[in-house]
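Could you join me in thinking about how sequence relates to backbone shape in a protein? Would you write everything just below, so we can both look at the same thing?
***
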Amino acid sequence: MRLLIMSDTHVPKRARDLPEQLWRAVDVADVVVHAGDWVEVGLLDRLEARSKRLIGVYGNNDGPLLRARLPEIARAELAGVRLAVVHETGAAKGREQRCARDFPDTDVLVFGHSHIPWDTVADNGLRLLNPGSPTDRRRQPEHTYMTATVHAGQLSPVELHVIPRGQ
């Protein structure tokens, strides 16, 4: 099962649309995961129409229309991997311990908000993933997203993709 992981797209505030590289990744993914900050409902509609399966949550920049359609926390089991998605996890310091406590029955937690790519494992084995942002890099050197493969209860490999400037 091929996963595409994105967050903090901020369309159309930070970009008019997702980069074409990311739309191509949507087309081949079995599951698209979006960790919030869509900004407008149009992108949700287009991703729902184009994705085989979409798992998403709302973020702090998402208004009532998105909050009416998306949960604050989403959970799914994907080929034996227990996935949770949330927009915010708080400060980087102590994140693994906090998330391990707050998501005890989860194998992989996808989050966003910071626009900073993150891939760590908590002491209890919880994998924490933040794909960064494909449209608003803030202080990061590149726009990014992640892909991963789920097979027989395992997540691997997780790959951070860089979107070339100007795309």
Observations:
- Strands lie at 2-6, 31-34, 54-56, 73-78, 81-86, 108-110, 118-121, 127-130, 143-151, 154-163.
- Residues 91 and 114 are 9 Å apart (CA to CA).
- Helices lie at 20-28, 41-50, 64-69, 95-102.
- The chain has a mean pLDDT of 96.
